[in-house]
Design goal:
There is one protein chain. By secondary structure, the chain is of the alpha/beta class. The chain is built from 20 helices and 18 strands. It has a 14-stranded parallel beta sheet. A two-stranded antiparallel sheet has the order 2-3. The protein is elongated, with a radius of gyration of 30 Å. It starts with 7 loop residues before the first helix and ends in a 19-residue tail after the last helix. The relative contact order is 0.04. The model is unreliable at 528-541 (pLDDT under 50).
Amino acid sequence: MHICLLPPEILLHVFAIYQEDSRGSRATLASLARTCKTFKEPALDILWQALDELDPILSCLVACLPAGVSGKNTRGTLTLKRPILDGEWRLFNRYAQRIHSLMVFAPQLDHINDRVIQALISAPSPLLPNLRSLFWHDNRESFDPLLRALLGPNMTTLILDCCLNCTSFAKAALLASLGARCPYIRELECLYDEVDSEEISDAICEALCGLKELLRLRTNVLNIRALGHLASLPSLERLHLDLLAYNADEPQSNIIPTFSSHFDQMWFNIPTLFVFHIFLENVRFLSCRSVSVCVEYDDLPYDPLEAIDFISSFSKCFSPTLEHIHFEFSFTFSNIVEEDVLANPLFALRFDAIAPLLSFGHLTNLNLDWICASAIDDASLKSMAQSWPHLENFWLGSSARWVIAPSLTFVGLVHLIRHCRHLRSIAMPFFACPVDANNEPYSETIPNGKITALFVGVSPIVDPISVACQLHILLPKLTSVGFFDFDTDFSIPPPFEHSEDDWKRVNDFLKVLFTNVKMKRSAGQAPLAHVADSTDTGYRA
């Protein structure tokens, strides 16, 4: 054997490569462990390090027992005919101590009976003493003792992905003791299934208050005490709160928890904008980079008054350092076909409703495609663009087929291109008509070669050829424009009735212009040199 392969650290690194290759990796590692004494221990360490199912542990347990001690009962589940002896446990522990990560799913637990469970929880030493990460997907009370046996002081990641709506007192007691059992947990996911259970909610909050080193947390149970504890943790960097069961009608505390730690990412699942508004009124986050909000309801798109209150609360809750704001609705706006919604001006939010977001001067990604932006005009969009100069991706009012005539025009798009030089994609409806190329803002706007995606939703248009030419000059890398086709239950009102065909003409002409540019470049000419900034790296091919 070459001397370079003698150090165990090198062997561990080499064998880890086989672990990452899913094609027969376990069989390969098992073969390596049988090759020679030098390979045995490192190969076994990697082989047993991370298990994505319980079956290897059960197979190992059976292999450590004499013939006839284990077998299948009449139901086909694994059973034992006698308790496991001390020498058999020592043999089992040679492998069990190597396990750092384990995933347990409900169907796997169906393969064992009560005798096996009793044996596992009665082990003379910790069952998996070096277990650091556990994913548990089962909520049956009969398996709670096994879960308890797996939780140890070395645990750093715990994901309880199960329906806790029928949680037993034993499960609640186990959760309440989590801080004492696993004090070094750094990542925790613990949810229950929208059931009003003080027993389980108090247990989860007690567990949260006992964890001092959390980095990442996902939960849907928080009281004022737990929020206060989390706010005091300097280590917390990712937070995912499911507020689907949040009771917005409960009296709110006068104490407002303030999170001073820096969050890299935050996620919220909410039932309505109103619930999120109430929650945000009672908490503050002083430093956060990214916020994603998933709204899980399938009613009307939104209540305009709730949307206004929500945006106001959002701007007060988060710090101006925020870079990403993303909203996702389970309600699919593009599926709306009712005229009383799509043509209703009450859904159109004015600039005053959006203005509180102007304080987020570091934004690079902003998703407001869920609102109707028909009441926002060119001057308002100019203020928005000047407030968000770092924008890279911007979506505004483009998710539904709104047939309310937009106040935005091509001039507003020019303002956006002029003041947000890092933009790569834009989605917003506007009234597309040619502008005076000799006057501001068009004449002072440097073309943006970074933008390759433009979606206009439902946008009325005049003179498609001229619009295509001006788009090509401003956005030389744009090859096509995305738009909605009309799939509604009512006749299309003016000025939208011909927009679908006109935007198809724009795309046809953009292809001709772009092809012409490529041909000129191939011939060594410099197209659009009279309007393009040759120092703009985004413009160069």
